[in-house]
Please model this.
Amino acid sequence: MSLRPTLETRRAQPTLEGAGVKLHRAFGFQDPSELDPFLLFDDFRNERPEDFEKGFPWHPHRGIETITYVLSGTVDHADSLGNTGSLGAGDVQWMTAGRGILHQEMPHGNQRGQMHGFQLWGNLPSAQKMTAPRYQDVTAADIPEVTDDDGTTVRVITGEFWGKKGPVDGIAADPQYLDVTMPAGVKKTFHIDTYRRAFAYVFDGSAAFVDAAAPTGVLLEKEVAGQEVNIRDLSGDRTLVRFGSGDEITVQAGEQGVRFLLISGAPINEPVAWHGPIVMNTQAELQQAMRDLRNGTFIQPAH
Ligand code: CO
Model:
């Protein structure tokens, strides 16, 4: 067993997206190799409808997957394949854009006008960038939830965890997407396979992530003795924690407990050519995508 060090913790940054949606971006449009196979992560938490209701009108995607997870409020969506629907609290949409789709995503507040959700972008390997588009709409009831003796609860959106398998399947980067809630004071170790690249996103409460910069045994011993150790205290929320290599992480929940997403996947290790919502391997492929958009050949005709 080897503990993954926390390479970095950082706050998500206020960002304006879509037709004027205020959100917080944890990563994206910087170094795409940093969290390969993941490209971008946005946190849509908003108390004021005027800050999000303009939404994300019709726009294209190619070469990636977008994963939307709604915690409160709803997201109405429609796309060029003729799909329409609405995601509610606890629902997930895993969209494989593949060769191309056009869609819109329009958020609406709950009864108090609040909206909260996340969007993650996963890259596709070259062999699957031009695959047929695919949607997996998963309702909250279909997402398995497991609770441990210490009160830790994990919703398994994709991948396997504690004997449960998430309902999303067939994804290139073999992602594991977990929504973890830990009660105050609980300390827990999570296994994450060595080949995965991993991050946590803390959005409620606080936690300390034990750092493996010092030998693990010493670190834990000191911590038990109540001495200061090399841990990262994430008081407050909207914090990204990027892990290095190893096969487990240890989390110590703070006084209010903690809720965080724990996401990992197999790196793709390919060149990235990125223009807005289109992510390919080469500039030539990006130019082809732009031509396809202009010529009306971006999407396959509906069958
Ligand atoms: Co989109």
